[in-house]
Specification:
534 residues, mainly alpha, Serine Threonine Protein Phosphatase 5, Tetratricopeptide repeat, 25 helices, 69% helix
């Protein structure tokens, strides 16, 4: 490696690590709980289960998320076996993976756009605040792994022909696919890279990588279909993605409007949030400006693709990269499990960083080297400071959901998450207020009803607790915990016949559940002791 390359690597190491050092003391948050701390197969290091069931099945045996990410679960299990429930090593792994992705992106940029654009683009990728969720949330591991595998595959395939390179790239592509479904766009990215190299450098077209990528993708889809019984998302909750309640053109226009939020997150990442679900974004009353912005994005993508086909260059590649990566994620082609999430912009933003790096390098001709460098360093410094500040929001769930509610006061999940954190901190009155606010925003919020019932039960407000347990049972008839606690509340109220029926229902839903069996035994003992039912 040349002296210029070594200096660039050290700059990128600092850019990728320094803004996130403040995240190392952070706790487990959000999906980290279910995927790591409360995941039976992760604790048992059950590799067979990782490859043989739904991504969330270790937390909920009946989960039907439609997600298949065995290598991500394997990485969690390996850390759990070594470090247990200490969050620091998990955060450190994520940070090192982010560094690896940054260096891979830089290598790809260098091959495509030269040293200057590669350095600026790599540095921009390292510090983008929109990456904070993927890097800071341990569950963001899936995005880090799939992006690393995808970039490694593209680097190998775009570096020359030969079966060894083709198979090595296929291996990296397989790792990416088994880490997260998003890697399925890699063949499309490969086509664009090869087209650019073919037209710009008169490079001979090589079909071997396409054949290997196609075989790997087909094998993955077959495995996924065998394990999950299908290829598509199975269950999508309107709470997570309210777009599923819209039909036809209404859904498409709303999805395009939401796509403008992704553009804003990339370009002006000033209002970041860990949640954008119901009703953080009100899909029933989206501003016409946002819908128009979505239509403008479509026009820009179509124009960029047409231009790239005729005259491929770096700005065109940057735009089509964004379009290809975002296409399956923005709910336009089909709905996915979330309306919007910052973490899924991680892989698409490689294209944005490439375009930004090219623009900063090109500005040297207009502004002069010194002025360009000053402006670029100022921009990157601002982005790095925003990223460092974001680390504090993810310190723990109380900080995180406090930040969500501050940015999106209408977020039902934000209020519910804040309520849960407040309850854990012993601030019960505040917790109750936020649970009620979550239910007010989204009356069908079964877990908010259930958690509020738990809080009310603990403070001996049994009639109110019973009401919310019953609402949870009605909203989700298979909610075993709600049936169990409904039975407990009925038992305390002396309604033994109803209590025994509710407890038996919980046991039907979760056979062998020791808590349900014990509660059933206690109720039957009281009935036997009194010699009658009430």
């Amino acid at each position: 490696m040349s002296a210029v390359g070594r200096r660039a690597v050290w700059i990128l190491v600092v850019a990728a690590l320094l803004p996130y050092l403040n995240a190392l003391p952070n706790d487990f948050t959000l999906d980290d709980q279910g995927l790591i701390l409360e995941n039976e197969v992760v604790a048992a290091f059950d590799i067979t289960s990782f490859f043989g069931q739904d991504y969330w099945a270790g937390y909920d045996a009946k989960a039907q998320s439609g997600l298949y990410r065995p290598l991500t679960l394997t990485s969690f299990a390996a850390e759990y076996a070594i470090f247990g429930r200490q969050p620091l090593p998990y955060h450190l792994t994520n940070l090192l993976l982010h560094l690896a992705v940054t260096l891979l992106a830089w290598r790809l940029f260098r091959r495509l756009a030269g040293d200057g654009a590669a350095l600026w683009g790599g540095a921009a990728f390292a510090v983008l605040p929109g990456h904070s969720e993927a890097v800071i949330a341990i569950a963001g591991r899936a995005d880090l792994l799939t992006t690393a595998g995808s970039l490694a595959a593209l680097l190998i395939w775009s570096g020359g022909g030969g079966w060894r390179r083709a198979l090595a790239g296929g291996f990296c592509f397989g790792i990416a696919l088994l880490s997260k479904e998003q890697a399925a766009v890699v063949p499309g990215l490969l086509l664009c890279l090869c087209w650019l190299q073919h037209r710009r450098a008169a490079r001979r077209w090589c079909w071997t990588p396409f054949g290997v990528s196609g075989l790997v993708l087909a094998a993955y889809l077959l495995l996924r279909h065998t394990v999950l019984g299908g290829l598509a998302m199975i269950e999508i909750e309107p709470l997570d993605n309210p777009l599923v309640d819209l039909q036809g053109i209404d859904r498409v226009l709303a999805a395009l409007a939401v796509a403008t939020h992704y553009a804003v997150l990339l370009v002006v990442p000033a209002r970041l949030s860990a949640d954008y679900s119901f009703a953080a974004i009100d899909v029933s009353a989206l501003p016409i400006v946002e819908i128009g912005g979505g239509l403008l994005l479509v026009a820009l993508v179509v124009g960029a693709a047409w231009r790239f086909r005729r005259q491929p260059d770096i700005p065109g590649l940057a735009m089509v990269w964004l379009a290809i990566c975002f296409a399956p994620l923005v709910n336009v082609l089909f709905p996915i499990g979330t309306i919007l999430a910052e973490r899924i912009s991680y892989m698409p933003s490689v294209g944005y960083a490439l375009g930004l790096g090219w623009a900063l390098e090109a500005a040297r001709r207009r502004l002069g080297s010194r002025t360009r460098r000053s402006l670029a360093l100022a921009l990157l410094s601002v982005l790095a400071l925003l990223t460092a500040a974001r680390c504090a929001d993810w310190r723990d769930e109380l900080s995180l959901f406090g930040a969500v509610v501050a940015v999106h006061p209408e977020s039902a999940k934000g209020h519910k998450g804040l309520a849960k954190a407040l309850r854990g901190a012993g601030r019960l009155a505040e917790a109750e207020t936020h649970y009620r606010r979550a239910i007010e925003i989204y009356p069908r919020f079964d877990t908010a009803h259930y958690n509020l019932g738990i809080l009310l039960y603990a403070t001996a407000r049994l009639d109110e607790a019973l009401f919310h347990f019953e609402r949870a049972c009605a909203l989700r008839p298979t909610f075993a915990d709600a049936h169990l606690n409904r039975g407990a509340a009925l038992f305390k109220l002396g309604r033994l016949t109803e209590a025994i029926a509710s407890t038996r229902r919980a046991l039907e839903l979760r056979p062998g559940w020791s808590s349900a069996r014990q509660n059933l035994h206690d109720i039957e003992a009281v009935i036997d002791r009194h010699g009658k039912t009430q």
